[in-house]
Prior knowledge:
Blueprint: H1 3-15, H2 18-25, H3 29-43, E1 48-51, E2 54-57, H4 59-86, E3 91-97, H5 106-116, E4 120-126, H6 129-137, E5 143-147, E6 158-164, E7 168-173, E8 183-185, H7 186-189, E9 194-197, H8 203-213, H9 218-221, E10 224-226, H10 229-237, E11 242-246, E12 257-263, E13 271-276, H11 282-294, H12 296-306, H13 308-316
Parallel strand pairs: 3-4, 3-5, 8-12, 9-10, 9-11
Antiparallel strand pairs: 1-2, 5-13, 6-13, 7-11, 7-12
Helix pairs in contact: 1-2, 1-4, 5-11, 11-12
Amino acid sequence: MEARHLRYALALADHQHFGRAAEALGIAQPPLSKQIADLEREVGARLFDRTRQGVFPTAAGTAFLDRARRALAEMASAVTDAQRAARGETGRLRLGFIASALLDPLPGVLARFGRERPDVRLELHEMATSRSTAALVAGELDVAVGLGRPRGRGAENLTSVTIGRDHLTAVVSTAHPYAGRPSVSVAQLRQQHLIVASCDDEPAIGIALSALLGEDSAACHGATVARDVHTIISLAVSGVGVGLGPSRMTAVPRKGAWFCRVTPPARLPDLVLSFATQDRSPVLAAFLDTVRANCPEVGAALDDRLRPEARRCTQRRPVAGR
C-alpha cells in the first residue's frame, strides 16, 4: 500500500464518481478503477459501493478513509518537519559563554536568532573558557564563546573566529579620586586596591594583568576577586577599590560608576567563537548565519575558516599559460 492509494481512495470518496475522481487526479479512469480494486483486495474488504447514483464508501471504507486522511496529514507534517529541520528552523543549540560576552555581541545575536528561529530550543550555559572548550570537544556544546583560542586536547578539531577585541578599562565610584579623569596610568593602578575577574576561571586574564602590573605586584596579588564584570562594577561603586575589566563593561549602565581608560592601552585576549569543524548541523549553520548578519566584520573571517579546502585549492591552482 502506497500513499497514492490513499489519495485515490480519498478522491473517489470526495467525488463519488470514478470519472470525476480520475479527472481530479489527472489520470485515466481505468487505472483508477484498477488501483481501487487492488486496494480493496489488500485491505480484505469492500471499501466502496458502486451504484447507479454514484460510488459511496461502505462502513469499512469510512473507517479506512478516516485513518487515511490522518495518515496523509502525518506524512505531510513529516515532510514539513524535515524541511524545517534541514533549514535549521527547529532543533536545539547548546551555547557556552563567558559573562562578559553578554555585554557585546551576544545580546544582539541571541535576540536576532530568537526572532528568526523561534522554534529552536536554546540551551545557554555560563562557564569559563577552559570548561566550555572541554565541553565543546566532548560534544556537550554546539558552540562556545570564550577568551582566546581554545587550547588543549581536541582543540585542533575546532574552528575558531574572533568576534570581539577588547582592552582593559578601569571603573571606580563617582566618589573616588579618579572619578572624572579620562584615564589612569598603570603606575596609579599599582597604588590602588584592585578588583579583578577570577584568574583561576580565566587564566588569560591573569596573564594579561601580570604582564601589565608586574608578576610580583602587590596590587595584583592582593586584589579582590570577582566572578564577573557585573560584580566588578558593583564592588567598585561600593568603594571597595578600582575595578579592572574589558571595555565592553562600559555598556552596563550603572549609577555611581565612572569608567576611564588604562594607559598605556592594555589589550585583553580576544573574544572567540568556537565550534566543531566537522559539525554540519543546520541549527549551527543558522546560528553562524545570524552571527554573520549581526557582526558584519566577522563574516569574512568566519567564511575563511569554514572553507580551508577551497582556499588550499585556490592556492594550488596553476597559472594560465604555464
